[in-house]
Design a protein that fits this description.
4 helices; 90 residues; two-stranded antiparallel ribbon
Length: 90
């Protein structure tokens, strides 16, 4: 379906790596790499949505909402690094 809509699109969905008891190690390794990237990205998005409440836009206009998103991303970086920053200060 994706290939019909966009010819340059790459498919990053998980593939089945086990078939009738046989494990395809190449597919398993590909899935593991995809999952690592996905976990890193989704964790940050979860912090932005749950901790800072960025679920809906608040203002009219792209500039104000873009500014709020950038500030929220900066705060999320500080939030995720808070233990390392505290250890560096102490």
């Amino acid at each position: 379906m994706i290939q019909q809509c966009v010819s340059q699109a790459r498919d990053f969905t998980q593939r089945r790596c086990r078939w009738r008891g046989q494990v395809d190690r190449v597919e398993q390794e590909k899935n593991r790499r995809k999952s690592k990237v996905r976990a890193k990205v989704e964790h940050v998005i979860g912090v932005i949505k749950c901790v800072f409440g960025f679920t809906k836009v608040r203002y009219r206009g792209l500039a104000k909402n873009t500014h709020r998103l950038v500030v929220t991303c900066a705060l999320a970086n500080l939030f995720l690094m808070r233990r390392r920053l505290a250890a560096a200060v102490a």
